[in-house]
Amino acid sequence: MTLSIRLAVIAAVAAVSVAPVQSGRSPSREAAAVRAARTAQNSAIAAHDLDRAASYWTDDVVIRSALGRVIQGSTTYRATLGADSATVYHRKPDHVDVSDNERWPLAFESGTWTGSDPRDGKPLIRGRYAAQWIKRDGRWLIRSEVFVALGCAGTGCSRPLAVP
């Protein structure tokens, strides 16, 4: 066996042995719990139950909104969400990765989001997001979120970009 073939075999074996770690383990109970928490929060937002929606954030949650505004703290985030009665937001996770270190009760979620008109359900604005979750007292809570607007329709296109 030539050196290049041996190296190719070693590389292939190494890639297979680390693939589960790199691609995110098969869905775990913790990842399922994060997804369930996101589904419950989506339901609360759709019902305009802001207290229940806020119960999924840590008190010190930090948000970078879709158009660049920084929102700090669950009270401010709740007020910001409540002030936007023209939009119903929905997050749809693509991936949830949970730390494999038991001393780090953290998870990373990424996916797509939409903001729709509550009257007819038509999308107004959409994009991608990422969230950091932390498990406290047996509950998964959102510690930070970043949203990026990537498309719009109708009145959603007239929303201003946050500038410093």
How far apart lie the N and C ends?
62 Å
Structural class, from helix and strand content?
Answer: alpha+beta
Number of domains: 1
**Form type:** globular
Biggest sheet details:
6 strands, mixed
Strand order, biggest sheet? Answer: 2-1-6-5-4-3
CATH architecture: Roll
CATH topology: Nuclear Transport Factor 2, Chain: A
- What are the secondary-structure elements, in order, as H or E? HHHEEHEEEE
Structure overview:
The chain has one domain (about 25-160): Nuclear Transport Factor 2, Chain: A, CATH 3.10.450.50. About 30% of the residues lie in helices and about 35% in strands. It has four helices and six strands, in the order αααββαββββ. The N and C termini lie far apart (about 60 Å).
Task: Give the key terms.
single chain, 164 residues, alpha+beta, six-stranded mixed beta sheet, 6 strands, 37% strand, globular, disordered N terminus
Tell me briefly what this model is.
By secondary structure, this protein is α+β, with helices and mostly antiparallel strands. Helix content is 32%, strand content 37%.
Task: Give the topology.
Blueprint: H1 3-22, H2 29-46, H3 50-54, E1 57-64, E2 70-72, H4 74-83, E3 88-98, E4 106-116, E5 123-136, E6 139-152
Parallel strand pairs: 1-6
Antiparallel strand pairs: 1-2, 3-4, 4-5, 5-6
